[in-house]
Amino acid sequence: MTYPTPDDIAAAAALIAGRVRHTPILQVEGKALGLPHPVTLKLEHTQVTGSFKVRGAFNTMLSKGVPEAGVVAASGGNHGAAVAYAATELGHRSVIFVPKAIAKEEKLRRMRMFGGEVILTEGAVEDCMAAYAAHAARTGALSVHPYDTFPTLAGQGTVAREIEAQMGGLDTILVSTGGGGLIGGVAAWFRDRVKVVSVETEGTNTLERSLREGPDISVQATGIAASSLGGPRLGVMSYEVIREHVDAAIVLPDAAVFEAARRLWEGTRLVGEPGSAVAVAALTSGAYVPEPGERVCVLLCGGNAEPDWFVA
């Protein structure tokens, strides 16, 4: 299975231009986060709908075309909000299947606010994926996969293209990982020019386990990041690009994520969702220690959470 090239990602950027935000970067002095070195934050949590997911959603719909039946997706929240928003903007109906076990009220509210019809499902995330696939087969609606299709990866890769243009020089990027769509797109853009580091929690370590045990493993997501990073298995296309171009996989406890979110708020007055704080935690926990002079970017991937989620 062939994953997107940098040319494919550049084409996706042109296709979705004007429909997504060119989100800013923020250069942060190390002491703001309790670090001995500066870091650059990519504020993708300020993206339309509050996450990077809208990039892949628009690229999928605009490149494939949407039938009269509209679109359907399965999501813990961010992907569903993105699909609902993109569908509404393009004049289509959207149906979003959400696993009840990991549904967060704030994310459900935003999916509905953007025009999505939300259907809660019982059982595990894989049961939700099966329900959404059955709906697509039954109705003919366009299936917008959260992470394992060519247009999704190409769309998500546009954020890496932006970062490189904004920073000029970059050595390492830290990326929170769920099903692999974001880090797959990032790795597809950078290839071997930049060190790409995956960061997960102990309850959502799909990528780390897949690299260690093989791509067919399935993870039942638990913990603080389950709704945003809870992909049950790594995408087939994502696995291919990750295996070739992701340099390291870090796994952290939930406690490290809470501490990272607290430092992010205290030092920058930025609030991200748990999925964003996971990447920050790689630095604040000491799990990733940059070399002297290493230029590091942390991708803050989403902001759809209650603003005080990390307050004890």
Automatic annotation (TrEMBL):
Going by the UniProt record, its keywords in alphabetical order are: Lyase, Pyridoxal phosphate
Question: What GO MF annotations does this protein's record show?
Answer: L-serine ammonia-lyase activity; threonine deaminase activity
Cofactor(s) recorded for this entry are: pyridoxal 5'-phosphate
What biological processes does GO assign it? isoleucine biosynthetic process; L-serine catabolic process; L-threonine catabolic process
* The UniProt record lists the keyword Nucleotide-binding: no
Q: Which residue numbers delimit the Tryptophan synthase beta chain-like PALP domain?
A: 19-302
State the family named in the UniProt similarity comment for this chain.
Belongs to the serine/threonine dehydratase family.
Query: Under which name does UniProt file this protein?
Result: Threonine/serine dehydratase
